Amino acid sequence: MFEKYVIVPGTLRNVVEDGRTTGFELGVRMPYYRGLGLSMVEDVAVTVDGVRAAPERTTFTVHGNSYPLTGLGEVVEDRWELGEVATVAVAHPGGLAPGMHDVEVSQRLRISYMPVPGGGRARAAVELSA
Amino acid sequence: MSHRITRGVSLYSFQEEFFLRTMTVRDAVAVAAKIGALDIEIIPEQSIPGFPHVSDEWVRDWHDTMAEFGTRPLAYDFFLDTLRHPGRRLTHDEQVASVRRDVDLAVRLGTTKLRAIISTPAEVLRDAAPYAEEAGVQLLLEVHAPFHYAHPWVLRHLEVMDALDSPALGFMPDLGCFVERFPRVASERALREGARPEVVDLVVKTYDDHGDVHGLMDTVNYLGGGPVEVGLARQATHYTWRDPRMLLEQIHRTHHVQAKFYEMTDEGTEYSIPYDRIVDVLVEGGFSGCLSSEYEGNRHIQDAHPVDSVEQVTRHHAMLERLLARHEN
């Protein structure tokens, strides 16, 4: 459900701080039909060119609020809204090379009424934006 | 026989457009008004930014929108996030508090019926019922496939309803309980995703013959089925076919109907659910409530086709209007 829209086109870019490229970021939507408290977002795994971004080096941002990916479980007072584009940023000195990248986003959502984890997997060839 | 059934729409129907920000709640209500679906059902967790903290301004806009289009707030769909915290379930008291929070918000939105998600324990509804009664709203358990009125989980709810005899408790069946033919949108998607036609045929035929769908996952596995094929077999156990006459059994406790549909055809009928017979049964039973459209086809076609929820809901209401008109004098 909504997997097609998980990876937001045109949002993969390198993060530059004080003139140095410190990592990369990507806009991601949740493949679910309502907003969900962040404590129930168990994982947003970003894999670029076959290498999974380390969770402890990943930051998750919605409507201006940033959280370490590994700390989302404690966030019961903030939500990822329906269709909202979250920014997933990965600390990765030097960033990504220009050009096309094979991007996969795999999400695991703890949805109380479902006996198995929800979420979904999306994969796309994405060009690094300036 | 005349009827006392109203037509409405669940904003769930427009989730594709809400998701992509191509429609707002106001746009959806305008569509509903235009097609005479005057009772509005909302999923606050889908439609209200910042839920559960809902601003007075949002609530004011909601009521202004209803007044502008001549529509009525009717139903509020709640979820119960028992797994909100990693590693533990909400306690009973926390679950009751969650329902009470939703009752409070329903009162602000003017919706008198709350969809209690099927996973809500009977004891939680039992202990939330006095609060709902006081607030003048109803907590209605959605009877959703693969559940049914004789299922142990629903029987437990019936015991509570019998014991408590509260006007605040009842049911809202989801018409996904009455899927007579396997939804074509689902089997066609499996084909697009690479399922072998003979495996799809096996699943669809077993379902349509109302055969043993519970053996399908194993059978498909033994046929060397991949994830898409096994997934389709699993879907066959999630749809259910029951005779619509089973609605009569609890019709006195039925105060709302979630009129699920997957595909309105060019001919103006639902491909898999026999709405004609269902409407007849509801009229026969004297159902006095709303048929609230729930379009769920988007998730099966969005990979390959543009989703047009407005067109689908419009066709659905043309059908409901036609079927209900047969019972108007």
TrEMBL record, chain A:
InterPro entries: CGDB. One of its GO terms (molecular function) is lyase activity. It comes from the Bacteria. Keywords: Carbohydrate metabolism, Lyase. It holds the Pfam family CGDB. Residues 2-113 form the C-glycoside deglycosidase beta subunit domain. Belongs to the C-glycoside deglycosidase beta subunit family. This is C-deglycosylation enzyme beta subunit.
TrEMBL record, chain B:
It holds the Pfam family AP_endonuc_2. Gene3D superfamilies: Divalent-metal-dependent TIM barrel enzymes (3.20.20.150). This is Xylose isomerase-like TIM barrel domain-containing protein. Residues 29-305 form the Xylose isomerase-like TIM barrel domain. PANTHER family: BLR5974 PROTEIN, HYDROXYPYRUVATE ISOMERASE. InterPro entries: IolE/XylAMocC-like, Xyl_isomerase-like_sf, Xyl_isomerase-like_TIM-brl. It comes from Kineococcus aurantiacus.
